[in-house]
Structure formats: structure tokens, C-alpha cells
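Protocol step 6 of 9: fold each sequence in the batch and record its C-alpha cells directly after the sequence line. For illustration, a two-sequence batch is reproduced in full.

Sequence one:
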Amino acid sequence: GTTRTHNRGQMESRTAIFSAPTAADAAGPRTRHGFSPYVNNGGTVLGICGSDFAIVAGDTRLSEGYSISSRTYTKVIQLTDTTVLATAGMQADFHTLHKVLLTRVRQYEDDHGHQPSTPALAQLLSVILYSRRFFPYYAFNVLGGVDDDGKGCVFSYDAVGSFERVQYSASGTGHELVQPLMDQQIGWKDQRATALKPVLSVEATVDLLKDTFASASERDIYTGDYLDICVVQAGKKISIERCELKFD
């Protein structure tokens, strides 16, 4: 009995020590103050290329949290007669990035007397993004167009300039919804007989792209309102089309 009473007394004294209020407890819960310079304004961009064309598209919704800042803000910009860039992410950053690229294109034209090629612009964009690697542009890019041989090309990027030439690429808040559909419809990555893979046409690709964004806007609240579609074809002027998506 004496031993049990002694042990109980020790436990009670230890509990009292560990549960004793401190000055920090008296001041209230601890808070950690921080600041982030970035905000994701949402949206989805997509690029698909065929043998002699490339299509680059992006929605026009600009959001912050559950608020819609704009329903008609285009994320697609024409850099040259053969190159189009679409960017999702933070509006302030990709607007600045677009201005920097347009300035560099004008400088190139003044120095060389002609526009830079799509692969050259792809490399330039990579260099600009990498130059900001310690304070990156919060911008996720898809660049598309036709090269000097008249072949369609699409380039996919990460935030610090690593890029790859691909047949299709998606970025933005709807990326997880769009990319698997492209893998199945364009990439044929579901183990079908690839010898039966049809040749992409401009009309069929545009229809697929519209259906893809319509599907993404059903699930992604940051994608919607309108869809800007830019079609780049070898030897033809770039055509731009705007169609409706979900408004709610």
C-alpha cells in the first residue's frame, strides 16, 4: 500500500510539472507569420501538333480563390507569324513574361531582318525562365507553331525552363483532367494497335480540343467562360477562334 501511494504521488507531481502553464501559454497560441509573392489565377492551356500544323488553346477565366476576376482574359499570345504561346499560372508573372518575349522578338527582327523560328523561340523562352530560377515566374507554358521545315511542333515547360518537344502538352489547373485524355486520344497509350492510328487533321483536332475543354470545365472551377483557339498552319495565316465554355 505504501509503495502504491508513493508511485501515485510521483506520477501526480510529474503531471503537475509537465502541465504547468508557461509564459508562452499565457500569451496564447503561437502563430507563424509568412508572406508568399505568388498566387495561382487558374486556367488551363493545351497544345497539339500534327504533321504540318499546331493548335494552341487556353480558357479565359481569371480567378483568385472562389472569386472570378475576369471572364475574358486571354492566356494565348501570338509571338510571330508561325509561333503561339499559351500560359497559365499567375497573371502578373505571365503578363510580364509575355511582354519580355515580345520585346526580344522585336529586337531579333531589328537585328536580323526576319522573325525567329519556333524552335529558336522555344530555346529563348527556356533561357528566360532559367534566368529567373531563384525567383521564378509563376507561369506554366505551352508553345506551339511550325518549324522551318513546315512541321508542327509543341514544346512543354516547367517553371524554371526545362523543356521538351512533344506532340501534345497541357498545363494549368485542369492539367490532370486534360492530359490523360490526350494520352488516350492523341498518344494512343492504351496499348491499341498503333499501326491503325489515324492521321490528325486540323478540323478533327479542333473538335477534340473543344470537347476536352468542355469536359475539364465541368470539374475544374478555375477553367471556363471562353476558349481561345489558335491554329498555326504552314504557309497560312494564323487563325484565332473564340468559343463558349461553362459560365458557372
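Sequence two, same batch, same settings:
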Amino acid sequence: MARLNVFLQHAQYLSKRRGGQMSFEQYSYVVGLIFRHFPCNLLVWGAGQDTSLWRTVNRGGRTAFLEDTQKFINAVQQRIPEAELHVVTYKQSMEKHYDMLRNMTDANLLIQLPGDLNAVEWDIILVDAPSYKVSRMESIYTSNKLKNVLVGKGRVVHILVHDAERHMERVWCDTVLGKTGFILIEGYRLNGIYSHIRHYIFGADDVYEADEMKRLAKTLVDKVI
């Protein structure tokens, strides 16, 4: 528990930085989930100021990051050269949101993952990219495709989607991952923006674990000063 508190103190620092990507409540929830399953296979859509946190919590496991924005790619390569970072390209834009909902095909929405990433048995997939200007339709769609293969093999897969309160992310979560059956983690970032994380668990009746994670996250938030 002492080591977990160190991770949470780092998460608290991130949540208080200008432009923090998650609230402390959300960071604590995701940290707790990874900590509960490490060493595991963790796939993160997006790289940035919390890249080091996810890698450190999942010590001994495989943590791979997918990023399309050059400034984040450069920053991670310079500051965390040991991170497993893969460059991806998104085909669609937010203007094509409604067209893509009517034409949900692999040709339109499936991201071709580099290297051996399609063959990895991912335990946790965190969708935190691309930006709102692009929309997360492709990362959500591709994550669901990965999940389908793994659940077919008898695996349990956790998919977390950050910024799910935004219209497009909410619609794509509803359409691809489901309107119900998720745990909602809410929080306010430092800039006052109210955000959601949806945590889906596929492949097992694991609502009990999700409830336990939420209770653990609240307990740890209360303990860290």
C-alpha cells in the first residue's frame, strides 16, 4: 500500500498541473485498476504528461502508447526514451462523425496497429486520444475489435474511455461499447472542466470488482493529502 500511495501522490501532482488530463479521482481509479492487475498488458491511446505514471504503476508488464501528435511524440521520446511509443495516423475527422456512424466498417475506422500490437493479449485498454478535434471514433472502434478477439479467447478485458462526457465520445461509446454496463468515474480537472471516464469490463461478470475498485479509489483519495 505504501508504494501505491507514492503513485497516487504523483497522480495528485499531475491533476494539479495546468492542463492536467484527469482529475485526481480519475487518476486514482485508473492507478488502482492497473495496480490491482500488474504486471499486465496495458495499451494506452495517447501519450503525454501521465506516460511515466502508467509505465511505473505497471512495472514488470508491457505498456504501449499510441500517439499521433508530434509535440507529444517528441516530448516522450526526449524525456522517457525507454517508453514503448508507436506513431499512429487517424483517417477521420469530427466533421465525418455522422457519416461514420452510418458507415461503421473496418475500412473507415480500423486503425492498423504497428508491430505485434494486434497479437498482444491486452488486459487493460485506456482510450485517451486523439484530441476532440479528431474525435475518438477510431480508437474506440479499434479497441472494441481488439476486445472481441480477446473475449473470444476467454480473456477478461477492461476498456476505459476518458472524456466520455463529450458528445461524440459519448455517442461512440454508446454505439460501439454499450449504453449500459459501465462504471462512471467523474471528476473536475484543474481548469474546471467536468469529465467522465467510462470503465467497461468484458468477458466476465465482474461488476463486483469494478465496485471494489471504486471503493478503493475513494479510500485512497481520502488518504492522500
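Proceed to step 7 once all outputs are recorded. Observation for sequence two: The CA atoms of residues 23 and 41 lie 24 Å apart.
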